[in-house]
Amino acid sequence: MIQFLLNQRLISTNKAASTTLLDFIRYEENLRGTKIGCREGDCGACTVLIGSLKAGKVEYISATSCLTPLANAQGKHIVTVEGTNLPDTLNQAQQAMVDCSGTQCGFCTPGFVNSMSGFALTCEDATVEKAISAIDGNICRCTGYKSIERAAVKLTEKLETKDQKNPLEWLVAHAFIPEYFLQIPDRLAQIQTAYATTGAVAVGGGTDLYVQKHDQLHEMDLDYLFDKKELNGITFSGNTCILKSSVTVTELMENETLLQAIPNWYHYLKLLSSTPIRNIATIAGNIANGSPIGDFTIILLAMKAQLILTNKTNNSRQVALKDFYLGYKTFDKKTDEIISQIEFEVPNHGTRFHFEKVCKRQYLDIASVNSAATIATNGNTITEARLSMGGVGPIPKYLAETAQFLVGKELNTATVKEAETILQTELSPISDARGTEAYKRLLGRQLFLAHFLTLFPETFTMEDLI
Predict the structure, then answer these.
(1) Distance from C-alpha of 74 to C-alpha of 92, rounded to nearest angstrom
(2) For 381-426, how does the pLDDT look when each residue is reduced to its tens digit (9 = 90+)?
(3) Same domain membership, residue 427 and residue 286
(4) Which residues span the domain enclosing 306?
């Protein structure tokens, strides 16, 4: 049995664990406010809130229910738009949308309302920027967004006096959420919080697998890893960051140690998908998907990442990420192995990191070409270089020859231009829907130069390198 709270009700079901939360909500529980749109996590029409009990408090995230396995709802509070309704009036998110004319056809509205309600539940320092970020996974085809942005601004203004000591009580008293939320922590404490499985196919957040194999998943023997305690957590040993495989992009994005160690870390990771996807997408899943343009794979390649692979008998081995990809969607990984741990080097004094991504939209899109660089210097000499690039070959590319050339060289324009010539010999892009071969080679050049312009503004100008 899978047990969880759906709005106010306790759900106990033996429905297939591979069923998406979206299908269960609509077809088993007849809650039709959660809409079916793209089924790929892009539109946000199916957005729900997922609350997990941690240290006696419930922490909520927004998530796309179309990509969430039912098993990952075990022991949690699932909130649909119906679950945010107040008895006699609109809640504050709904009222803001009405006051600002934020809805026309209404198809996307439940997703926006849920995302805004989630922002109200989680924000500690309400700002307009954070409010708009909270709805970055929701697409509207009618309003042109400005009216919805105005609704987000209005909601933010009402949250400025939120009581952080007793946030739930304050939110209930000020009509942001219904009163039953106050009982959720005690009710979740009575539910078993783990769903034990040992299937053949491992699935974490599901954001890749449920896009690629939605129809086949019901026939698969799945092992749900998302909430297994042994596969969660971020720790540090010296300047090495150690991730368990179920760590999400959001968890890594908001880690205080990384935010302090890597300038622009938050803004780099904002380029990766949308908030509801980042909340449930795992780092290991991004690696195991094997996409030639996987954003986190490109970032970790430039951070000298190592993978720990563990099989069903608990035997482990270590593989460098740069050696993990043998060909397109082909890995140095046995069938019964999972990525149980990821280790990477955090840039320290004298080491600089930079990530670049070009796509048709700045946010919420798959890259045409992406690239990352870690460069260490001693005075004006490059002592270490690690470079990676995606979208320029069948696998995420570690630019070994270019990096090797740079080591020991003087940091100047001639060095960078000669290195870019070597870079082009390592690229093998093809023409496809995201651009021609020539265009991708041009992007590769521009992103490579952008690393140096950004990391060493005291040394290079645009005129020097272009």
Answers:
(1) 29
(2) 999 999 999 999 999 999 999 999 999 999 999 999 999 999 999 9
(3) no
(4) 228-345
399-429: string of b/e by CB count within 10 Å (b at 16+)? Answer: beebbebbeebebeeeebeebbeebeebbeb
Statement to judge: residues 252 and 162 lie in one domain: no
My answer on whether 245 and 327 are in the same domain is yes
Question: On the CB side of 409, how many CA atoms lie within 13 Å of its CA?
Answer: 17
Q: Which residues have C-beta within 8 Å of that of residue 375, sequence separation ≥ 6? A: 351, 352, 382, 384, 385, 386, 406, 451, 455
Residues 62 and 104 grouped into a single domain:
no
Q: Which residue has the tokens 């100047």?
A: 412
Q: What is the CATH number of the domain that holds 265?
A: 3.30.465.10
Instruction: Give, in degrees to the nearest 5, the angle at Cα 66 between 61 and 67.
Output: 70
**Domain match, 252 and 280 both:** yes
The DSSP line for 109-145 is HHHHHHHHHHHHHH-SS--HHHHHHHTTT---SSS-S
Give the residue-averaged pLDDT of 231-246. 95
Nearest by Cα to 123 from 96, 175, 159, 92: 159
Nearest Cα to Cα of residue 65 among 128, 140, 156, 4: 4
Domain count, the chain: 4
